[in-house]
Write a structure and sequence with these properties.
The protein is α/β, with parallel strands linked by helices and about 375 residues long. The chain has 2 domains: about 130 residues, Aspartate Aminotransferase, domain 1 (Alpha-Beta Complex), CATH 3.90.1150; about 240 residues, Aspartate Aminotransferase, domain 2. The chain has 12 helices and 14 strands. Helix 2 packs parallel to helix 7.
């Protein structure tokens, strides 16, 4: 099987697996225990916290380890809202956010919050003028992702942070897709909180982190919680966290050279699957994007069909959207950038990783050419 769904999840690297095994075998103590085994586990945890903070130019006191990006998003938004002294129940976001943010915001409406979804352009970028116009005296928080998981658009979080900071509005960003792919500087972007995840960068599943600027006040979602300085309950997953940091240390030194390699593989792939009998459209920006995320449509064919055909021939890709009761839902990202429901249903996503090879891309091109020629009755 050729795996081209790295934006969904990644396999653990050998180093991350090795570190996980070592820590789970030798340093298995509960970080809350006061004996030596527990203290050793606590030391590993704190060193991991310091290491992660350095990669985002943050303060180690602001790192809270979680079960992943979704939990980080939920806890960040709720904890900041509970802790803010600013009055108001207005939140700004976009229609492009991950479901963990979208569902959280929908739930907050039941608590009296009003959500404004700021418009984006045809490449999926936030309209900064529209953002400024959306700000009201009662706006308390904005949650805008850094990188889009379907079409790879990178938001200008530094410009967004400048606008929000001038109005004393809390700024949270889901950085799950960009962490380990491009630089994230929480201070430069004036970010109050971000979420990151381990399994997107060849670390273990079930591990992630939330960063909250220590200068900002927050309150626990669950009162009297003791773990992670009260941020979340549950015994801390020290082996998983250590393996996460091992994956971070592997991916960061190569992230820019990898984006350059992905750009070349991407161009080869998109050009290679084109044909005279069918129309391929690459969706998303042509510059300032995550090169490993490739969103395309083949005119006249639903993405679900292409995904199943790829799977049949041994290539794992994504439609970029979920299926419900046998019906493919149109990509919310494509609808937000002005595409029709028909175009949105034709969407597929291929995403590359550090183990993707040129040979795999060549074979994928051959497979696409094979089944597309059959579909369009090309000899």
């Amino acid at each position: 099987m050729i795996y081209l769904d790295f934006a969904a999840t990644t396999p653990m690297s050998e180093k991350a697996l090795q570190v996980y095994g070592q820590v789970a075998t030798n340093y298995y103590g509960n970080t809350s225990s006061h004996h030596d085994i527990g203290s050793t586990a606590q030391s590993i945890l704190e060193e991991s916290r310091k290491s992660l903070a350095e990669f985002i130019n943050g303060d180690a006191k602001g790192i809270y380890f979680t079960s992943g990006g979704s939990e980080s998003n939920y806890l960040a938004v709720h904890s900041l809202l509970k802790g803010t002294n600013k009055r108001g129940k207005h939140i700004i976001s976009t229609k492009l956010e991950h479901s963990s943010i979208g569902n959280t915001l929908e739930d907050l409406k039941n608590s009296g919050y009003e959500i404004t979804y700021v418009q984006v352009d045809q490449e999926g970028r936030v309209d900064l003028d529209a953002l400024s116009r959306a700000i009201r005296p009662d706006t308390v928080l904005a949650t805008i992702h850094h990188g889009n998981s379907e079409i790879g658009t990178i938001q200008n979080i530094t410009a967004i942070g400048e606008i929000l900071n001038k109005h004393d509005i809390l700024f949270h960003s889901d950085c799950v897709q960009t962490f380990g792919k491009i630089d994230i500087d929480v201070k430069e972007a004036k970010l109050d909180s971000i979420s990151v995840s381990s399994h997107k960068i060849f670390g273990p599943k079930g591990v992630g982190a939330c960063y909250i600027n220590p200068a900002q006040s927050w309150k626990p979602v669950i009162p009297n919680t003791t773990h992670e300085n009260g941020f979340r309950p549950g015994t801390v997953n020290v082996p998983g966290i250590a393996a996460f940091i091992a994956a971070v240390e592997e991916i960061f030194p190569i992230m820019y050279s990898e984006q350059e390699r992905f750009a070349m593989l991407r161009e080869k792939l998109v050009n290679g699957i084109k044909g005279e009998a069918w129309e391929i459209a690459e969706i998303g920006p042509s510059t300032n994007r995550l090169e490993h995320i490739i969103g395309i449509t083949v005119r006249g064919i639903e993405g679900q069909y292409i995904m199943l055909e790829c799977n049949r021939y041994g290539v794992a890709i994504s439609t970029g959207s979920a299926c419900s009761v046998g019906q493919q839902k149109p990509s919310k990202t494509l609808l937000a950038i002005g595409k029709s429901k028909e175009e949105a249903k034709q969407f597929i996503r291929l995403s590359l990783g550090k183990i993707t090879t040129d040979a795999e891309i060549q074979e994928t091109i051959a497979i696409f050419q094979h089944f597309l020629k059959k579909h369009f009755n090309v000899a």
